[in-house]
Amino acid sequence: MLKRISLFSSFLVALLSSFPPDQPVAAQSRRPSQALRQVAEQQRKMLETYDRDAGDAKAQPPGLADPDELDEALKKIAAESAAAFKLGDWKGEELYALARLYEIAGQHAPAAEAYRAFLNRGARSKMASNARIGLINALIETEQLEEAEKQLASIELGFVIEEPVVMAARAELYKDLALALRDRSQYEKAAATANKGYTLADSVSLSRWAPPQAQETTDRYRIILAAIAIGSYERLGQKKEADEMDGLVKKFDFNRQPELRSVYESELATARLIGAPAPELVVSRWIEGQPKSLSELRGKVVLLDFWAMWCGPCVTAFPHLREFQSKYAGKGFEVIGVTRFYGRSDTEESLSRDQELKSLEGYKARHKLTYPFAIGKLDDVTNEERYGVIGLPAVILIDRRGNVRHVKRGVGEYRKLEKQIEKLIGEK
Question: Across-strand partners of 306?
Fold first, then answer.
């Protein structure tokens, strides 16, 4: 969520600069705008601390703060602030500020209600586009996809020249909506949405006025949107459209930014995986687990965690995986840690296979991991290639029918991952 909030920070800065100067703020904020300023300041300090620690070469990776902990802390601050206000008591800029508080708190239903009220009461044009973006985000989060589609279409019809950062936020909405539609197997709508988002993101990339952060973020969105479109076209049997989009990316995107090729290949592999049967793992050794194939686990929800001993950020996931395994094991859920022999551990280099196996066993016990490890051969990247894994950690969720349903890369957003797990457990 910290990444999402940072995208909206530019909107917040513009909004706060338009508010009248404040008197000193008391312990309990008197207005939503004052509370929002306080939350924004807390957010700024959290991000600065996290970025400073992440960039400290002397800092041990396992010592970095868990992004989910930062996320939850900020949510709690925003929720406590929002609880002091009633939606019907405010209008104009204060109503917008209250909607933002709800959004940061992860309270998407009241956020949608507040944004609607703000827009219906003659919102100032300077804030209207930001409010519309906030509303669409809340609708996607609450799975009101049809209304989200209509709201996005209304922005298209009323198109005006926007600041690049606003256009970047809209590109993110197209990405999120396309992903949600694809997850519902609505491939035709997913392809159309992704295509529109790709065109919008491309215009941001070509803009001379886009800030570096908006530029970099939108470049990734553009590649992800292209992959979603191609994967959806392929599911629809529309090979021509898929090939045309693939050719477009390779001809223009890679020429401008060759470094995006690996991102594209990974995202395209993911797009082709979602909804398809999970590829079997190639396993050299198991630790604390009887040799088993994924086909033998049909009927269970399976989480594959791709990791390595030398991967500092991977440690961040372990408490969450332990929690999931303990909480859902009795409901037909299983975790498998997927790694391979690298010839080294988190503390030693040039290990033999037996030495590394011993290190893996000690590592497993040290981190109190109760689920089995599936270990691939040295220098064999078959499992990574089959699942489009280009960086660690990476999580794959497989449903009871043996189909891949969700892919998560990197750290953070484990509460969202848990919601995905619960959703798949609830399916029969």
Answer: 338, 394
The secondary structure of residue 277, as a DSSP letter, is B
Fold designation for 2-273: 1.25.40
User: What confidence tens digit (pLDDT) does each residue in 268-289 have?
Assistant: 999 999 999 999 999 999 999 8
- In 3D space, the residue among 206, 175, 194 whose CA is nearest the CA of residue 241 turns out to be 194
Q: Mapping DSSP to helix (H, G, I), strand (E, B) and coil, where does residue 376 land?
A: strand
CA distances, 106 to each of 30, 109, 332 (Å): 22, 9, 29
What is the total residue count of the chain? 428
Summarised one tens digit per residue, pLDDT across range 39-98 is 999 888 888 877 776 665 454 444 456 777 888 889 999 999 999 999 999 999 999 999
**What distance in Å separates the CA atoms of residue 74 and residue 39, rounded to the nearest whole number?**
8
In this chain, the answer to whether the domains covering 2-273 and 285-426 adopt an identical fold is: no
> What does each C-alpha distance from 371 to 206, 230, 252, 402 come to in angstroms?
47, 36, 45, 19
> Rounded to an integer, what distance in angstroms lies between the CA atom of residue 78 and that of residue 278?
40
| pTM as predicted | 0.83
With b for 16 or more beta-carbon neighbours within 10 A and e for fewer, the 120-159 pattern comes to eeebeeebebbbbbbbbbbbbbeebbeebbebbeebeeee
**Encoded amino acid at 291, one letter:** P
CB atoms < 10 A from the CB of 293, how many?
10
Q: Chain-centre distance of CA 24, in angstroms? A: 37
User: pLDDT (tens digit, 9 = 90+) per residue, 97-142?
Assistant: 999 999 999 999 999 999 999 999 876 666 888 899 999 999 999 9
SS3 of the chain: helix, strand, coil, percent, to 5: 65, 10, 30
- From the centroid of its chain, how far is CA 310? 24
Token pair, residue 279, equals: 């590829």
Written as six digits, the tokens of 260 are: 């995006």
Domain boundaries, given as residue ranges, for the chain: 2-273, 285-426
Query: Which CATH homologous superfamily contains domain 285-426?
Result: Glutaredoxin (3.40.30.10)
The span from the CA of 341 to the CA of 264, in Å, is 27
